[in-house]
Amino acid sequence: MKKSKLSLLLVLSLVLSMFLAACSGGTKNEEKSKDEGKTKTTEEKLAADQTLNVLESAEIPTMDSAKNQDTMGGIMLNAVNEGLFRLDENQKIVPAAAESMPKYNEDKTVITIKLRKDAKWSNGDPVTAHDFVFGWQRALDPKTASEYGPYFMEDRIKNASEIIAKGEKATPEDIKTLGIKALDDYTLEIDLVRPLPYIESYLAFYTFFPQNQKYVEAQGDKYATDAAHILFNGPFKMTKWDGPTATEWALEKNDTYWNAKNITLKKVNFNVSKDPQASANAFEAGEVDVTPKLAQAAILSQYQGSEELLTYTEPSVFWLKMNQKNPAFQNLNIRKAIALTVDKNALVKDVLANGSIAADYIVPKEFAFNNGKDFRDGAATYMKMNKEEAKKFWEKGLQELGQKELTFTYVGQDTESSKKTDAFVKDQLEKTLPGLKINIESVPFKIRIDRENKQDYDLLFAGWGPDYADPMTYMDLFLTGGQNNRMSYSSAKYDELVKAAQTTLGAKADERWKALHDAEKVLLEDDAAIVPMYQRAANILVNPKVKGLVTHAMSPDMDFQHVKIVETNK
C-alpha cells in the first residue's frame, strides 16, 4: 500500500467502468441523443429486494483481522470492519474511521490522526483511538501468532523490531512501547522508524484495523471463530458463519455504521463453489448474481461479448516456490533447471485460457509507476523457458548432489482450476527433467497457507496480490528471515538492495527504482529462487441488475458497499 513519488493508487483503471456505473439512489444516467442533439434521461429503478447472491471459490480461514493473511478473509473483513482509511469506488484513499487525512511532523515520521466521533461498534460502543492501539498491539503480540502483524510493522513502526526480536520473551510492557498511542479518545499518534511515502494506503490494510479490547478479551479463544463471536464497525455485519470450514455465510447491512444511510444493499449471501462449470450453471439458472473468478476457456467462450462477463487484468502474480529446507533446492543448478522448464505461454493460452499473461517477473505490469513510467518499462524479464538449458542444469545439479533421481512433494490447491494448472506443471517438469518425480497434494486454501507457513512442502504453487501501492509489497517478501519468505531463501546482495530501497533511497525515486530492478534480477536470474508463472486476469460473471460492484488492485479485491440492485427486463 505504498504511495511514494512513484504514484499512488495508480493503475486502478483496471477496467472498472462496468463496476462503477450507476451508483446513486434511483440512479439517473444521462445520454446524448444523436438524432435530437439534446440530453435525455433514463431511469434505473431500485429493486424491492436488495439481496446479492455471490459464489466464492474458497472458505474464510479466519475473521480475526490480526491473524488473517488471505484474499477471502480480506474481502470479508473489509465488508464488516474498517480502519482509518479505505479505498473508495474511484480507487482513492479516503478517511474511514478517521475524520480526515493525517497530519505529519516536519520529517513525516510522526503522524497525527483525528477519528470521527460517530463511528460505533455493532454493540453500540464508540470506536476510539484506544481500539486502534489495542488492535495494533495485539497483532504484534507473539501470543496472537499473527503472520502479518510482525511483517507489516517490523522496521516501519517505532519499536516494532525491538519487540519482535524479543519473541516470546516480550512482556506486555514491551508491547506497549509500540509506536502508536491514544492522545485522547479520538486522537491517534503514530511514530514511524522512517518516512513511508505509501503510509496512507498502508494504513488502509486490515492488519491495522481496530479491535474492541473489552469484547475481544471477553470472548477469549472463541473470538472471531464464528459469526456469533465477532464485533463489527463496517458497512455490514456477519449474521451467518460457522467458522473456517463453513461453505456458506451471510452479511447484512450494519445499521450502526456511521455511513449506513448510504448503504443500499440489505443482504449478501455467499456460497463456496470450487467447480467453475457448476458456478456458471448456477449463474445461468439465476441462482447467483456474481461468480468466482472463472478460468475455463470452454466457459468463458460462451460469454464473449456479453455484458455479463467482466474481464480485467489483476496485479496478482503467481509463482512456484522451491523450499530450500530441502537440500536439493539448495543447489542453484537444480533451481535453474526448474525455473527454465515450464512453458508459461502454453500455460496461459492452453490451460488457463482466460487472458492471463505469462510472467518472467514478480512485480506486475501496470501496477507501479515512477514519473508516469511503469516499473516494467526498461526492466528485464528473467529465466524464460529453455528446455535444453534446463536439462543441462538438471544433469549438473544431480551430479553435484550425487543423485540420479529426485522426488518432490508439490502442494497445490483443491479447486478444479488449480488442479489443472498443477497437473500441467507436473507434466512439464517430469517430461523434461529425467529422474524427476512429482507428487501433487491438492488441499483446501487454509491448509495450503498452513503448509506454506510451516514450510511443509518441496514445491508449492502460490501467488501474491499487492497490499499497498508500491513494488515493495512484492520485493520485501523474500528478505532473509522475512515473515513471508517461507522457503529459507537468503541472499546478502538481495537484502542489501531491498533494504536500500526501503531506507537511504526512499526519497530518491530513480535510484530506488534501479535498486529494485537489480534486486528482482538477483532473485529470479542470479539465484533462481522462485519461478514466476503468470499475471492473472480475472473473469467473473455479474448479473446486469447489479450496479456499483467495485474491485480493487489491493485488498479488498471486491467491495460490496456501493452495490445496488436495480430492476431489469431480464
UniProtKB/TrEMBL annotation:
Entries under SUPFAM superfamilies matching the protein: Periplasmic binding protein-like II
Gene Ontology cellular component list: ATP-binding cassette (ABC) transporter complex; outer membrane-bounded periplasmic space
GO molecular function: peptide transmembrane transporter activity
Domain Solute-binding protein family: 92-485
Keywords of the record: Lipoprotein, Palmitate, Peptide transport, Protein transport, Signal, Transport
Subcellular location: Cell membrane
Signal peptide extent: 1-21
Topology term for the membrane: Lipid-anchor
Biological process per Gene Ontology, one example term: peptide transport
Family matches, as InterPro entries: Peptide/Ni-bd (IPR030678), SBP_5 (IPR039424), SBP_5_dom (IPR000914)
Principal location class: membrane
Pfam families referenced in this protein's UniProt entry, alphabetically: SBP_bac_5
Cited PANTHER family: PERIPLASMIC BINDING COMPONENT OF ABC TRANSPORTER, PERIPLASMIC OLIGOPEPTIDE-BINDING PROTEIN-RELATED
Family label: Belongs to the bacterial solute-binding protein 5 family.
UniProt-recorded name of the protein: Peptide ABC transporter substrate-binding protein
Species this protein is from: Neobacillus rhizophilus
